[in-house]
């Protein structure tokens, strides 16, 4: 009898948690993050400055947020999007984030790899192919994608 009551209570809690999760996903337009539309990144007002900067940047016509901020592989892209989506939502909801917003080390690494992917010929000319891991594109070109 006790185990049956515990199972019912557990089911109720799981149902409530699932319901809240689905509601939050729909209310926060979570589905939009599965797409490649940069305006989804501006769903949260904290990203408006970055979005406006991207619109005015030299990369506006050639790259979207996903091109620079997610890995090139399909699985890597969605793992990164899921992780970032969760932690960005958590930080925004809890108010525990740095202002102005700053890129985290792992996301910076992903962005550096994206720079190298698109601009490898330039990097090879500057540094030589054997030194590509030592160059930091963002050290000198930090505002290219967002015009800080």
Describe the structure.
The structure is a single chain. The chain is mainly alpha-helical and 148 residues long. The protein has helices at 2-27, 48-56, 65-69, 74-94, 105-127, 137-140. The protein has one domain: Orthogonal Bundle (Multiheme cytochrome fold). The model has no long low-confidence stretch (mean pLDDT 85).
| Overall structural domain count | 1
Number-wise, the strands total 0
The CATH topology label is Multiheme cytochrome fold
* CATH architecture identity: Orthogonal Bundle
Mean pLDDT reading: 85
Give the termini distance in whole angstroms. Answer: 63 Å
CATH class: Mainly Alpha
Q: List segments where confidence is low: pLDDT < 50 over at least 5 consecutive residues.
A: none
Oligomer: single chain
Sheet with most strands: none
Give the class from helix and strand content and strand pairing.
mainly alpha
CATH H level: which superfamily? Di-heme elbow motif domain
What is the number of helical segments per DSSP (H or I, 4+ residues)?
6
Outline type: elongated
Q: β content, as a range? A: under 5%
Order of helical and strand elements: HHHHHH
Instruction: Estimate percent helicity.
Output: 55-70%
